[in-house]
Specification:
Belongs to the GlnD family. The protein is an alpha+beta fold. A hairpin with a 4-residue loop joins strand 11 and strand 12.
């Protein structure tokens, strides 16, 4: 591997720096004014040094070299500062043996690498107890470093204290493990390291290893156990720098080495694997240094709003189907995967080495308890301590199908994987060729693994981590570590697909009945189609990152792969159809009016059969659930269930053909009967205020709640009221508004919700015969407990009432109370608006698509009111930073919009609002006075 020239001499000249400080000493070296001059000189040195380090990083791309240069810069600053303090501020006169001090770098600084914004960890090492002189020197150095704006971790200890504390405190032990001499009395440092190795490290390897791996596991749990989060933490996330550092800490401690090269000589890593180690470390350091330089702070997480700039700094350019930032992040995740591979290899070697150090009876007992056992059905694999491993080093070379068999046997017998086996898989990937990919037995074993009744996700994850899955299915290999630059998808494409398989398995095993009652009921009747369903789930996004539409391209890939897997022509076509249409059900449920019969008819025309409907319903649920935590909620589940059952009725001939008039009359009779215990006059008045559309659309249970709401509001003499109803099963909260109707009502309501931080997911809009509006909006749930959620919803309802009554000024409230989500501004979405008259028999359907921002729904609905359009229903869908909002509208006479000139005027205005925004006039409109 090419070594980057460090050019440390360019960073700072220690002699020149000392000369500058000498010139500032004068006769008043200790005055605060003089110290300010010292600080100014050092600040300039650090600023220039870091600027030069950034320039060199841009030129040579060496991340590790950059970190070493910055560490060297701080070394020289601290050395010069120490000499200045010891010579001019607190000079020693006839120093005693106790007036000695050593400056030692510990922690990350001890490794000789520093990111631009990293902390500086210093140990002031003393031979005996603290002396006044030592205390003064340490204090002076620290105050100057703090004045420089540096964050300094520090400790002042004797050698004895270091040894004693490191025995009981693993953090201190790790810090001293990485200790590096900076300046002062070097023999004191040598004494510390010699005693540390002899009195602390010796014979305590297993204890240290257990502690460090425990810390690593806890850190991974904090960062969600995956290295593929799309906003990863470069330092502490899985596959980040801290994982590499943990490996090296353990290596230095257990193998008693000081450099990575020694690990090669000891056989822990091959030369190629060590090159991969240094390459991953160099890349991660480059990313981290650029991140600190760009943000001008110790930022460790690659948020969306910096990813594009980091990609540009690192020189990535766009390729067809992938933007520059997506190519950069794919490279990042591949490096994180490399770190995982190295961890597995290292742990394997470590385990073997530990076994060698077990002595006497313990070794005999361990050998007995962990002896290898034969694995039924094969002589190529054995069981070692409940983990499957290879019987010989040539098992894969002798028969490449064994690469698949390893995972098949592990699944069949419920075994974990021995690191030796996975290590050999990674080293044998060159055996995966066209012959193996077309081997019938290999494909049968893979299909068994994919459709396992046990834990297919786990075994596919292990196969993917070892690099085999992407080799066996090359199209899958193209999406390994691929991210999608948006705020909707939480994982890389390959992780998403494997999570989806896990969701499907959980549904089939009945573990998701509460969350997915419909699909759980469907699965037992789909045994004949379960294999093709699993394949469709695994492949549905396999064509992401290509210039063409990924659904269509994915269907083509399925038509090529499925016959090789053993599927018939009919099953292959079903899988291809599912992949090509895997977004249709989700988009229909979330963006269309499911109470409009035309919606159901159009969807049924796409699906055509109940069998396909069932398969698509399950695939859709798995796809949404696999996007990330919290994306699927009860409201989306309810929408999917409604669409499924309405479409099933139509496909089986059970869809109601009753006329709208007859259904309206039937609805009025049903509500009248349900209110049978009300006084006749009161009941007849409340039933009479509704138009037929309301009675046909709203469930009877909700009609009863609304009737009581209207009665109570009228009895209280109120013109304006709100009612809240938490709906925990759907994961939403319903807010119903009764108010005098006017064109901008929905716009004002939407603006008030934006000001309250409430995210609207759907809206139903009804007008009563007495000129009032009965609007119901659904907002995403925020609290787990209904009591907390109800209190929050009442606050939102009160805010809506305040805005409608003119007590609050909407534009100011939105500006003060809302702010875009972090990273949202970095996304670019071309505004789009369409108006179609074929999606509904009664309404024109307007769909707008663009970048989300606070108050956008209020602006759009205000614009629709300005255009003299009456909104019958609104369907609000958010995909991360992107919104797709659908409005069913008519003109003020209740007719569709069919004039081409007017249609174009509407679309032009909506595109302007999406692009530039507007302060809606609705914000300046309070409720009209009663005539």
């Amino acid at each position: 591997m090419t070594r980057i020239p460090l050019k440390l001499e360019e960073m700072v000249d220690g002699t020149t720096l000392r000369g500058r400080l000498e010139a500032l000493a004068g006769d008043a070296g200790g005055t605060s004014q003089n110290r300010a001059a010292i600080v100014a000189a050092l600040r300039e040195t650090i600023k220039n040094g870091k600027a030069h380090a950034e320039q060199l990083l841009t030129e040579d791309g060496g991340g590790t070299a950059c970190a070493q240069r910055i560490s060297h810069l701080m070394d020289e600053v601290i050395r010069a500062l120490y000499d200045f303090a010891a010579t001019h501020i607190y000079p020693r006169i006839n120093p005693s043996s106790g007036e000695r001090m050593t400056l030692v770098a510990v922690g990350g600084y001890g490794r000789g690498t520093l990111a631009p914004g990293s902390d500086i960890d210093l140990l002031f090492l003393l031979p005996y107890k603290q002396t006044p002189w030592g205390e003064q020197i340490a204090e002076y150095i620290l105050y100057v470093l703090w004045d420089l704006g540096l964050k300094v971790g520090h400790a002042t200890r004797t050698v004895d204290e270091c040894i004693r504390l490191s025995r009981s405190d693993m953090t201190i032990r790790t810090a001293i493990l990485e200790a590096r001499f900076i300046w002062g009395e070097e023999p004191l440092y040598d004494e510390l390291m010699e005693r540390f190795d002899r009195e602390v490290v010796k014979d305590t390897g297993p204890e240290f290893i257990a502690a460090k791996l425990g810390e690593r596991d806890e850190r991974h749990r904090k960062w969600f156990e995956t290295r593929y989060l799309v906003e990863p933490n470069v330092k502490d996330g899985k596959g980040g720098l801290r994982d590499l550092h943990t490996l090296f800490w353990i290596a230095k401690y257990f193998y008693r080495v000081r450099t990575g090269e020694e690990l090669v000589r000891k056989g822990v890593f091959t030369r190629q694997e060590y090159r991969a180690f240094t390459k991953a470390e160099d890349f991660l350091w480059a990313v981290r240094c650029h991140l600190h330089f760009l943000t001008k702070k110790p930022e460790e997480r690659l948020y969306f709003d910096v990813q594009r700039d980091i990609a540009e700094r690192l020189g990535y350019v766009a390729h067809p189907g992938l933007s520059a930032v997506e190519r950069f992040m794919k490279h990042y995740f591949l490096m994180a995967k490399t770190v995982g591979d190295l961890t597995r290899i290292f742990c394997s070697a470590l385990e073997e080495e530990q076994d060698k150090h077990v002595e006497g009876f313990n070794r005999l007992f361990q050998s007995f308890s962990r002896r290898r056992r034969k694995l039924p059905g094969t002589s190529d694999f054995v069981i070692d301590n409940n983990r499957i491993t290879i019987a010989r080093d040539d098992v894969f070379e002798k028969d490449p199908v064994n690469l698949i068999r390893l995972f098949w046997f592990a699944d069949r017998h419920g075994l974990e994987y021995h690191a030796d086996a996975l290590r050999l898989v990674t080293r044998s990937l060159q055996l995966v060729d066209r012959t193996l990919r077309r081997d019938k037995q290999a494909n049968r074993l893979f299909l068994d693994l994919l459709t396992s009744h046990r834990n297919p996700e786990l075994n596919l994850l292990r196969m993917n981590e070892a690099g085999l899955l992407g080799k066996f299915i090359p199209d899958f290999g193209k999406i390994v570590a691929m991210m999608q630059f948006n705020m909707y998808h939480h994982y890389t494409v390959d992780e998403h697909l494997l999570h989806c398989v896990g969701v499907l398995a959980a549904i089939e095993q009945g573990r998701e009945a509460t969350i997915h009652p419909m699909t759980t009921k469907l699965m037992p009747g789909m045994k004949a189609q379960r294999e093709l369903l699993y394949v469709a789930v695994l492949l549905h996004d396999i064509a992401k990152g290509r210039p063409e539409d990924h659904s269509e391209a994915g269907a083509k890939i399925a038509r090529r792969l499925c016959p090789i897997m053993g599927f018939s022509a009919g099953d292959t076509e079903t899988i291809a159809w599912l992949i090509e249409n895997h977004l249709v059900m989700s988009m229909t449920a979330q963006t269309r009016d499911l109470n409009d019969r035309k919606t159901i008819e159009d969807f049924a025309a796409v699906v055509q059969s109940v069998e396909r409907l069932k398969l698509l319903a399950v695939l859709t649920v798995c796809d949404i659930r696999g996007v990330g935590p919290g994306v699927f909620n009860g409201w989306k589940g309810q929408l999917l269930r409604t669409l499924y059952y309405e479409t099933e009725l139509l496909l089986t001939g059970g869809f109601s053909e009753t006329s709208r008039g007859e259904r309206g009359v039937a609805g009025r009779i049903a509500l009248t009967r349900a209110l049978g215990d009300w006084p006749d006059a009161e009941r007849d008045r409340v039933v009479a205020v509704h138009y037929d559309n309301y009675l046909m659309t709203v469930d009877l249970v909700d009609q009863l709640r609304h009737a009581a709401f209207i009665r109570d509001t009228d009895q209280a003499g109120r013109r304006l009221a709100t009612m809240v109803n938490p709906r925990p099963v759907e994961g939403v909260t319903e807010i119903t508004i009764l108010a005098p109707d006017h064109p901008r009502l929905l716009s004002v309501i939407a603006g008030a919700c934006a000001g309250a931080g409430a995210n609207i997911v759907d809206a139903q809009i009804f007008t009563t015969v007495d000129g009032r509006a009965l609007d119901t909006i659904l907002i995403t749930r925020e609290f787990d407990l209904d009591q907390d959620e109800e209190r929050r919803a009442r606050r939102v309802g009160t805010l809506i009432e305040d805005v409608l009554s003119g007590k609050s000024w909407l534009p100011d409230m939105i500006e003060k109370r809302t702010k875009p989500k972090r990273g949202q501004k970095v996304f670019r979405i071309t505004p789009h608006a369409s108006l179609r008259n074929t999606l509904s028999n009664r309404f024109s359907v307007i769909e707008v698509e663009g970048l989300d921002r606070p108050g956008l729904l209020s602006e759009i609905t205000g614009a629709l009111s300005d255009l003299s359009l009456d909104i019958a229903s609104a369907h609000i869908t958010t995909f991360g930073e992107k919104v797709i909002d659908t409005f069913y509208v008519t003109d003020l006479t209740g007719q569709k919009i069919e004039n081409p000139t007017r249609m174009e005027m509407i679309l032009t205005r909506l595109r302007e609002v999406l692009e530039n925004g507007t302060r809606p006039a609705a914000a300046r409109t309070s409720m009209p006075e009663k005539a």
